[in-house]
Task: inverse folding
């Protein structure tokens, strides 16, 4: 299992570095030191250290996509792609949670494709996640609410020449 985990972490690190635009490191937080059991965080990024930790369930969902070439439960896959893209976006230096979430939904489409999903599936998964974020009325998640500019052609559209969003 250690060899598989190391291989997966290398892949997640490469993808996060691509999104962050700089070398970063991603680790699966198997001991829940930073994620999960003691917190509600599925991932956490330490911007100055260029380091992110992902909850084990996130790593497993990403592993299914990247290495087993299957999606698994759609909600889990959508969430996992978003979490990796979200933490990588933080590692780009963006601290605002709502802006980060908006960018993560957009980055998640290409991330999914690079991990082996076809474009339609990757886009559908990010739409599932976007709809989940938009419907979440939890007080805990207020900081993650998508801002008005998070739309096709909006101020937070990473690809304004592309008519699809996310």
Result:
């Amino acid at each position: 299992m250690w060899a598989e985990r190391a291989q997966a972490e290398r892949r997640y690190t490469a993808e996060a570095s691509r999104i962050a635009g700089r070398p970063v490191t991603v680790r699966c937080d198997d001991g829940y030191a930073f994620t999960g059991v003691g917190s509600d965080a599925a991932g956490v990024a330490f911007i100055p250290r260029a380091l992110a930790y992902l909850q084990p369930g996130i790593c497993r969902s990403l592993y299914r996509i990247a290495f087993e070439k299957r999606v698994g439960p759609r909600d889990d896959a959508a969430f996992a792609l978003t979490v990796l893209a979200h933490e990588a976006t933080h590692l780009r230096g963006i601290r605002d949670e709502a802006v980060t979430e908006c960018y993560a939904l957009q980055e998640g489409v290409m991330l999914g494709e690079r991990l082996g999903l076809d474009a339609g599936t990757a886009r559908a998964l990010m739409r599932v996640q976007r709809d989940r974020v938009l419907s979440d009325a939890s007080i805990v998640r207020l900081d993650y609410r998508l801002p008005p500019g998070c739309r096709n052609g909006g101020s937070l559209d990473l690809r304004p020449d592309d008519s699809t969003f996310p």
